[in-house]
Design goal:
Blueprint lengths: L1 H10 L6 H10 L4 H14 L2 H25 L21 H16 L4 H17 L5 H24 L9
Helix pairs in contact: 2-6, 3-4, 4-5, 4-7, 5-6, 5-7, 6-7
Length: 168
């Protein structure tokens, strides 16, 4: 079912959207788009801890996804790809993991950014299916893992009583 759904997504690409999804995939690499967004929030709102926590979530999510990819060793889909085949394994999606971890931190600390952050995370995660390098289960697992990491990051920071971790 997972492979069939991935093949269906790839078979139903819409040519004029190809570039946008390739760009989303590149923007999600290593959480760069999230670090830039967090830096902007930190500078504009005077809340440097937002950047620090997004960076912590990004690093933790990347390490977790990488470790699980090595442990599971799941092969990537054998479909037409719009980007180069990554050298890592497929499960879970690192892009989905880091995107949802960082989006969860931003959504928690800056509630006004909740919808755009989660929408961007979902778009980056879906881009991995669209460009043909992940199965749906990879992306769903990555999203769930990332959201958990992001929420745990903010909860741990709040428990430690860090100033500047109020929402809004």
């Amino acid at each position: 079912m997972d492979a069939r759904l991935e093949r269906w997504i790839v078979a139903h690409r819409v040519g004029f959207l190809d570039g946008a999804f390739v760009d989303l995939t590149h923007a999600g690499a290593a959480g760069i788009v999230w670090l830039v967004a967090a830096a902007a929030v930190a500078l504009l709102r005077g809340r440097p801890r937002v950047f620090v926590l997004v960076a912590v979530a990004d690093l933790a999510a990347g390490l977790a996804a990488n470790g699980l990819q090595r442990a599971f060793g799941h092969r990537r889909p054998d479909v037409s790809r719009l980007v180069a085949l990554p050298h890592s394994h497929s499960f879970p999606s690192g892009h989905a993991t880091t995107s949802f971890a960082c989006a969860a931190v931003l959504a928690t600390l800056e509630p006004r950014l909740r919808a755009p952050a989660l929408l961007l995370a979902a778009a980056i995660a879906y881009s991995r299916l669209y460009v043909g390098v992940h199965y749906p289960a990879d992306v769903l697992a990555g999203a769930a893992l990332g959201a958990a990491i992001g929420l745990l990051t903010t909860a741990a920071a709040r428990r430690r009583g860090r100033p500047g971790l109020r929402a809004g």
